[in-house]
Amino acid sequence: MELKRCRKSEILVNAEVCSAAARQFRALMALPKDGLMCGPKSRSADLIEQNFESCAALSDIPADFRLGDLTKEESSLVAEAIRIRETLTEEELLRSLKEFVWTCTETPPKLPPMPKQAPKP
């Protein structure tokens, strides 16, 4: 019984981290790819890559687990994480992150336009 509870907890944590990594990935991909704030963006990409490993851990969920004692919310969370794992491959994620970081670090920053000063009388 203890092993089953531990396994359930592990699967739910992996599902939550996987879902969060996918949300973070989508948010990062929506950011401008210029050179502003590249350091934090690059570190975010590293964190997303690391967290996305939780999606791979969901590939070996026993079939009888999902039929077990999950609440509706837990079932929904696990189903969402499995959908993410099936639709966003690790290869695609890594390629996109690598491209994003390269573009971010190689593109000169676009600075906001300087306000025009009124001529001195």
Number of helical segments? 5
End-to-end distance: 84 Å
Number of domains: 1
Give start-end ranges of low-pLDDT stretches: none
Write up what this structure looks like.
The chain is mainly α and 121 residues long. It has one domain (2-106). The chain contains five helices and no strands. Helix 2 packs antiparallel against helix 5. The radius of gyration is 21 Å and the shape is elongated.
Summarize the topology.
Elements: H1 2-30, H2 38-56, H3 63-66, H4 72-87, H5 90-106
Helix pairs in contact: 1-2, 1-4, 2-5
Give a concise summary.
Helix content is 70%, strand content 0%. The protein contains five helices and no strands.
Sum up the structure in keywords.
single chain; 121 residues; mainly alpha; 5 helices; elongated
